[in-house]
Amino acid sequence: MFVEDFSAIYAISLQAKDHEIERGHTIGPELVQAIRESRVSVILLSKNYASSSWCLDELVEILNCKKASGQIVMTIFYQVDPSDVRKQTGDFGIAFKKTCEKKTEEDKKRWMEALAYVANIAGEHSLNWTDEAAMVEKFATDVSNKLNVTLSRDFEEIVGLQAHLRKLISLLCFECDEAKMIGIWGPAGIGKSTIARALFNHLSSDFRLRCFMGNLKGSYKSIMGVDDYDSKLGLQNQLLSKLLNQRDMRVDHLGAVKEWLGDQRVLIILDDVDDLEKLEALAGELSWFGLGSRIIVTTEDKHILKAHGIQDVYHVGFPSSEEALEILCLSAFKQRYVQDDFENVANRVASLCGRLPLGLCVVGSSLRGESKEEWELQLSRIENNLDRKIEDILRVGYDRLSKKDKALFLHIACIFINRSVDDVTSMLADSNMDVKNGLKTLAIKSLVQIHNFFPPHITMHSLLQLLGRQVVHEQSNEPGKRQFLVEAEEIRHVLANETGTGSVIEGMEYLPHLRLLHWDSYPRKRLPPTFQPQCLVELCMKFSNLEKLWGGIQLPSSIRTLHKLEKLNMMGCEKLRVIPTNINLASLEEVNMYRCSRLRTFPDISRNISYLDVRNTKIEDVPASVAERWLRLEKFHIGSKYLKSSTHVPECVSYLYLSNIDIKKIPDCVIRLRRLHSLVIKKCRKLVSLQGLPPSLFNVDVDDCVSLKSVCFSFYKPKSAYITLDDCKCVKSEKDAIRVSSLFHNPVRGIRLFNCFSLEEEARRVIIQQCDYQNVCLPSKEIPEEFTHRAKGNSITIISSGTFSASSRFKACLLVSTDPVEEVSFQSEIVCRLISKGVVINELLCNPIHHHLLLSEHLLVFSGPLFKEHICCELDATTSEIRFEFNRKYVIECGVQMLAEEGEIKLASSFHDPNREVRFLNCMKLDEKARRAIVQGWAYKYVCFPGKEIPAEFTHKATGNSITITKGTLSASTSFRACILLSPNLQHPADYYYKITCCLRSKGVLINDLECYPNSRSFLWTERHPLLTEHIFVFTGAMFKERRWVEVDSDIHFEFSCNEEHLKIVECGLQIMAEEGESSSREWKKQSDGAVKVSKDENIVKTNKHTSRWSELKKLGCLRKKKKNKRE
Fold first, then answer.
1. Is 979 helix (H, G, I), strand (E, B) or coil?
2. DSSP 720
3. Where is the region Disordered (predicted)?
4. N or C: which end of the chain has fewer CB within 10 A?
5. What's the pLDDT tens digit per position in 953-997?
6. Which of 22, 37, 58, 391 is catalytic?
7. Closest CA to 821 of 778, 860, 853
8. DSSP β-ladder status, 996-1002 and 1005-1012
9. pTM of the entire structure?
10. Domain range for 301
11. Residue 1111 resides in a domain
12. Residue 484 falls inside a structural domain
């Protein structure tokens, strides 16, 4: 069956053809032509299908067309199992063998390959249907839907266009009769106009009145002597002339569009809109157009869409690496794949183009027909210079910026690429730039991206970065007169010849009041005496010859406080011996002294340091005073052959890196770290035992500890655990939730024992058999026996005698090789793709920590669910065969172990753990009873699950993101439960790592603030699980900060916020908890007779009632302080 036209499906009946074509004959030219001219081919596979060589030849021809031109192929398996088709077994196999008699081996091979391929194409199975008429009706609908996104031949070579059109058609919502306006938003050169033209081409036949107004950016500007009103009339005139196909159209008032089109169904695409007034002139309101009209606006400026009230916006993202390479190949080689021997250089070119389609097309066409040597020769030019066509398009967005925003753009392009928002804000705090609003402007105009990792970072496309540096380069032919110098040679020339102006430093002796100084390999032993460091926010002098920090600088006593310095990086300063401690560095947060090989004294220079690296120094120990006074240190790197012992580590450390230390076991100071999440131990070659580690650990990485023999982890007593069920449609009741959750005991834990070759066999066995980890990596030569399904290479197929259910899980084991030539290391993630019946049912990312060089074969073990998202619903009843594919060539062997539905280990305790984080993301079938039980009966740190409204027990409710509780009396131990309703923007999935903040205020004074991370597990596990519907997020918190409480006689205001713009807080609720448990709001309100005032000192309260709580004040040490303040 073939689909030849949009309007109808033309079926070529097999029975009719049987009369025309004699058995054994090949298919005729008219049928070949019909196949090749078809848009969609439908293959009906039955038990007798293989009895006809004509059918088999037809199949080969269809698949050739699919490969050559991307023809859509759909399948129906009529009373036949796809496995029989794939393997030519059963009745299907008998018919096939009979047909193959007297046929050549070449024919048989072609047919077998075609059957194996077509059997993996997802289709309809008649055995799954009780009503064949219903199956046919559904299939006809599926074919129609395929046709709705079938492209014109003009757009066949546009990579990824089908996916864009499917999403846009869904967004246009044609089942709705009302007029609708949507936006297409993305950076210059991303392909917005191409997508819009293809969409217009596809939809045009459904609209009698249609118009594509292209390139509105800069067009239709008012000319001298013509005012804005006339310009708007001109725009409307252009629109109506095109729509109504009347050249002599004259518009004399701005109501003309509504007058002419108010009752007409129209399709209008306004392309590349750069001005809100233009949009308002052309499509001011939906009421201007008749029912069923669709208006589509493309722009680089998201603010235009937002200001015009367009809610549905499609963001055009960058293509994947594979798609980018395909775009380049189509432009350079006129084919979709890389030409022989060009793979490495083509990938390099695609990377330099930053996956921007415009850049890929322009650069590809410029290299068409050139030799491989010429491609390699042009790499430097591509990396450092913009093609004129690309520059002309990218420059328009920059030119339209305000003066301040242009300055910020150039600062980012030249200096602040991949820096955090906080860093850039601090560096430019004293400038006249409005950094916060400027970044927002650049982001909505697609000139930068703000990524909500922790902390948020700024990135800029590589071609935009080139544009910014080119703008600076054009400021002057003399490097010293430019605003920024980027190239090392130009900087050296300016400093050596003292040719700089006020824009750039005029020689090292005259350094101005800098906020950032980054000078690698600084040649002098001291900084110049005239250097004024008091404005420094960041000082980076890696690999310099400095012997004493601040040495030689004449600091007056009045400025011995460097109160702005936040980051100090002296990595690799091998001559540095002394760090003065007589300078106040209270603001210092990050210190890197790695490889300062002569440094002997511990840099006890600030109590607010959160990151410290003192590896490969001569420091012998951590002073006890540091462990007692440093209360903010989170990440601590230490270790060298000079470190005698490690007896003191601040208890607040959450990430600890130990290297080159002569220890045989883990020091007691490490075992006592209650907040430790990650432990890295590297090249501790005498370490024999790894035992007694803190149960709070999520990740353990041990590298090159060649004496390590025994390992023991406290798996079953975690201080906190994550329970996360993402997109699990089988979870309906509380019983289901507990049952399925038992498989997720603590899945974010990771254990890596790289190159630890002395590890005993018993230790390996125990580690591998555990079930509660993200991944495990350790040395080994073979797949363990418990992995009963095994195969050589990087793929394996599992066939079950029964069926796999939606809650089925697996554990995979890979034996990875070491290659002395390629030096195999885990520098990129390993992808595990699960395929059933040709459909990808899940895709898992496993990233066992970067840059570990393997010196021998290693095992990588990880676990996961079989199904993801909606797939478990669709295939749950029929799936009995699953193929596992791993994306790394260095996989020698792979093994899979199917886990029982109840899990191989169960939770030792119930869910009543106040430190547990529970997530049922997109578990749409969770019933109301289960939701109620989770909210009312489980104890947790926080919980998230689908929901449409705030539960009834949250008696204080408000629409929006804030709520005020009327006055009452609260003690230091009062707590609350908060509930917020999160609504996602389905067109823009939320980022990996978003944060919910709750601020509590009384009389304008902040009495507490809390932060929660509903999706933090996705960040740690590198999987993305965007919300597909509204979700309820519940968390608990204390009313007051630690060591502070107050009895309040005024209202308390709760304000919630989310740092992800595509998640909206639509409603919030509160429940006040009593000291001994849960109290009703009525009981809380009855206690409102106590009058209490908040002092200016945040740790002092003033009260005139409730003297029974004075004992609590004494415990907090506040009473004595209060009396002292009164005397003063």
1. strand
2. S
3. 1079-1098
4. C
5. 898 999 999 998 876 656 666 788 999 999 887 666 665 467 888
6. 58
7. 853
8. antiparallel
9. 0.61
10. 161-218+228-315
11. no
12. no
